[in-house]
Amino acid sequence: MKFLKxxxxxxxxxxxxHAKVEAADFVVVVNKDNPVESLxxxxxxxxxxxxxxxxxxxxxxxxxxxxxSDLHTSFALEILHKSPNQLLMHWKHILxxxxxIPPRHYPDNNSMKxxxxxxxxxxxxxxxxxxxxxxxxxxxx
Amino acid sequence: MKQSPFVFYTFLLIFFALQTxxxxxxxxxxxxxxxxxxxxxGYIKSSGNNFLGNxxxxxxxxxEVGLTINSTVNDNLRLGFQILSRDVGAEGNNDFQLDxxxxxxxxxxxxxxxxxxxxxxxGLYNQxxxxxxxxxxxxxxxxxxxxxxxxxxxxxxxxxxxxNISFGSNGDIDYQAYYGKVDFSEDSGHARxxxxxxxxxxxxxxxxxxxxxxxxxxxxxxxxxIYSPPLEGLRLGVSYFTGQTDFDxxxxxxxxxxxxxxxxxxxxxxxxxxxxxxFAMEYSEITGDREVMGFDIPDGRSQxxxxxxxxxxxxxxxxxxxxxxxxxxxxxxxxSNFVAQGQPDFLGWRKDIGVGVRWNITSQWNIKAxxxxxxxxxxxLPLFNPQGVKKDWNYLVLKTxxxx
Lengths: 141, 404
Fold this sequence. Notes:
The complex is a heterodimer.
Chain A: H1 2-15, E1 26-31, H2 41-48, E2 62-65, H3 70-80, H4 84-96, E3 104-105, H5 109-117, E4 122-127, E5 135-138
Parallel strand pairs in A: 2-3, 2-4
Antiparallel strand pairs in A: 1-4, 1-5
Chain B: H1 5-21, H2 26-32, E1 33-47, E2 62-72, E3 77-88, E4 96-108, E5 111-119, H3 150-153, E6 155-166, E7 172-181, H4 189-204, E8 211-228, E9 234-251, E10 254-273, E11 277-292, E12 295-297, E13 301-314, E14 317-327, H5 336-340, E15 349-360, E16 365-375, H6 381-384, E17 392-403
Antiparallel strand pairs in B: 1-2, 1-17, 2-3, 3-4, 4-5, 5-6, 6-7, 7-8, 8-9, 9-10, 10-11, 11-12, 11-13, 13-14, 14-15, 15-16, 16-17
C-alpha cells in the first residue's frame, strides 16, 4: 500500500511539471562535402545522444559540441530535450560504463567552424549569425 | 580470486603500441586518446544493524577511485579500459581491479561487438554501479542492485553484441546480449554468503568448519532491451541474467564442493525523465538455486521493487526519495519459513524508505547526504551482524565525488 501511495504521489507531481523550452538561435552544420541536405529532428537527437553513429553512406559521424555557451543550452533544450547537465550525465554514463566516448568539445563558434570545415564526417551547431560559406547549414524538419 | 594481471597488462601494451605506431600529430593524439577518471569518499553510520561492514561505529570504508582510458583506433574500432580501486565495508579493500576492458567494434548502428571484460546490462543502471556521481543517491536500490551480489553481476570476461534499432517516429530500441565468466572475489558479500551457508551446513552435519574456500564462476549470460518510445523522456526496459558459480573447500582432510546458481534474474524497468524531474521504477525476480555437498538447499524465488522520485527544485540541489522493497521468497513474504527454522521472520524481507539531497558544487564535483529507515534484515544482513540482527534499523550516508 505504501508503494502504491508513493507511486500516485510521484505521478501527481509529474503532472504539475512544465518543461521549459527557451528560444534558440542556432543552426546545425556539416562539412560542405557532406551529401546530406536536411535532417529530421529525431535523427539529429539520435546523433547527438550517440544512438546514430554512421551517416547513411556508411561514414562514421564525428559529433562536436560547444558546451560552454548559451547556444549549447538552447540546442540541448530544443533538440535533445535535455538540460546541459542531463546531457553531460548521459555521456558520462556512456564513458564510464565502457560503452562509448563523448563528443569532442570546442570553445566557440570559430573553432567549431574550423573543425567542421576540414572534417567531412563532422556535425555540430553554431550561432546562426556566424554561418558562412566554409560550412553547410542543415535544415531541420 | 584476484583479477588476472595478464589481461590488464595486455590491454596496456596494445594501447602503448598503437600510440607509438600512429602518426603523433598533436590533434591526432588528442582525438585518438582520452583519459578520464573519478574519485569519491563516503561515510556511513548505522543504528540497529551493521550494513556492508562495521557501520554502527561509523565507517569511512566507502570510496572509489577510477581511471578510464579510451583510444579510437579507427571509425569502427575503439579500445578502452577502466581501472578501479574501491572499498565498501568488508569488500574491496582498495585493491586495484580491471572494471572493464574492451575492444569495441561497431559495424553499423544496429550491430556492434565488444570483446574483453564487459559491464553487464542489468536493469537500467547496473552498468553505472560504481559511478555514484551520475545518480541522485549514493547506493542504487538494494532490492535489485544488491551490493553483496556485485561481484557476480558487475562485469564478465567474454563478449557482447549490441546496437540501436530505430523505428523512426515510433521510437528506438537499444539491445545488448552477453556471455562470459566472472572473476569471483572471495571477499565479496556473495562468496562470503555461500561460505557462511556451507559452514552452517557442515556444522549441522557434524563435519566441522571449512577452510581453503575457493570460488570459480562457470558462466554468466543474459541481455537487455531498452525501448525509448516517442513520449519524450520515457524509457522502458527488460533484462535477463543467469549465472553459475562453483565453490571448493576443505573440511579436515576431505574436500567438498558447493554450487550457487542465480537463475532467471529478470528486471522490468521504467524511467520517466523531464528537465527537473526523474521518476524511476523497477521490478525484479531471481531464483537463488544453491547446492552444498550434493544436498539441495531450499531456495525460493525472491522479489524486489522500488520507486524513486528525484526533483531539481532549484540550482544546485537535487532532492530524492525512494521506497525499496525486497522479499527473500515471494511465496513466503511473512517469513514463516524462517520461523520454522528457528530464525526471526524479518529475515524474509527488507523495506527501505530513504530521502536524500545532492549538492552539485560544479558539474564535476558533488556532495550527497541521505538517510534511510529500514524494516527487515534480508539481503545478507546476518553476515555483518553475527551477534544477531534487529528488525528496525537505519543508516546515514554522506559522500563526495569528483570526476574529470
